[in-house]
Amino acid sequence: MNLVIDIGNTAAKIAVFDETKLVEVFYENNHSLDGLHKITQKYPLQKGAIASVVTLTDDICSQLEKLGIRMLHVNSSTPVPITNSYKTPHTLGVDRLAAVVAANELMPGRDLLVIDAGTCITYDFIDAKGEYKGGNISPGLHMRLNALHEFTDKLPLVSQEGDIPYWGDTTETAIRAGVIHGVSREIEGYIRQTEERHPSLFVVLTGGDGEFFETNKKSTILVDKYLVLKGLNRILNYNDTLS
After folding, report:
1. pTM for the structure as a whole
2. Which fold has domain 1-73?
3. Mean pLDDT across the chain
4. CB 141 within 8 A of CB 117
5. Where are the alpha helices (DSSP H) in 14-154?
6. 107 pLDDT exceeds 60?
7. Range 76-243: architecture per CATH
């Protein structure tokens, strides 16, 4: 079985795969992986992959060494089963790369727009030939809500949970609706403009905040919150065939 670890800006996700089948997902603090020991007791792990957008703590590095399995540290030099045309691959987040790898595996031979709505919102394009062309990065929901509070004198910190009217009738609903509707229009705009360039476009949506956004293109959208984990597992299996 495969162990896949995705450490993001706000949390860590740990998944167990039986070859290509996702078996179970665990959530951990991104500064410690205290649940690793229990996972190794529960499953007969054979190999693993880890990707992180933050610097690994000494505690995590120590726990990984104790696993006793071969771990692939996914980075810009790791072989992947797609063509990467990013001009600065060493600066490309491994989460973005893993997401397009998974999308290409799920929908091969299609022009794909991969949208990851998490701490940041990323928009990445991979064409029908499996060539990753690049993408854009935008602030996520929490980042926008925090910014309105941090960079103003009087605006309150508002949760994304709550009423989302078309027009806010209190400062709280005005902020929440402004941010969420704004992101929704941004996403719709990316989809519409990319479709103009690639009429057969298919959209893959992932990330913790993906549920907040709906578009009128539901027939051409696949929602998969475990896309990055699946991509890392695909990269792990791909590298296993090269060894």
Report:
1. 0.90
2. Nucleotidyltransferase; domain 5 (3.30.420)
3. 91
4. yes
5. 36-42, 58-65, 94-106, 141-150
6. yes
7. 2-Layer Sandwich (3.30)
Provide the CA 79 distance to its chain's centre, in angstroms: 19
Q: What is the pLDDT of residues 42-97, one digit of tens each?
A: 999 999 999 998 888 888 888 888 888 999 999 989 999 999 999 999 999 999 99
Distance between CA atoms of residues 119 and 9, nearest Å: 7
95 catalytic per annotation: yes
- Other CB atoms within 10 A of residue 181 CB: 15
Task: Give the number of other Cβ atoms within 10 Å of residue 204's Cβ.
Answer: 24
**Domain residue ranges in the chain:** 1-73, 76-243
Mean pLDDT of 200-208: 91
To which H or E segment does residue 2 belong? strand 2-7
Spatial CB neighbours of 144, under 8 Å, sequence gap ≥ 6: 179, 182, 183
Burial of 211 (0-12, 13-18, 19+ CB in 10 A): exposed
18, 59, 95, 224: the active-site residue: 95
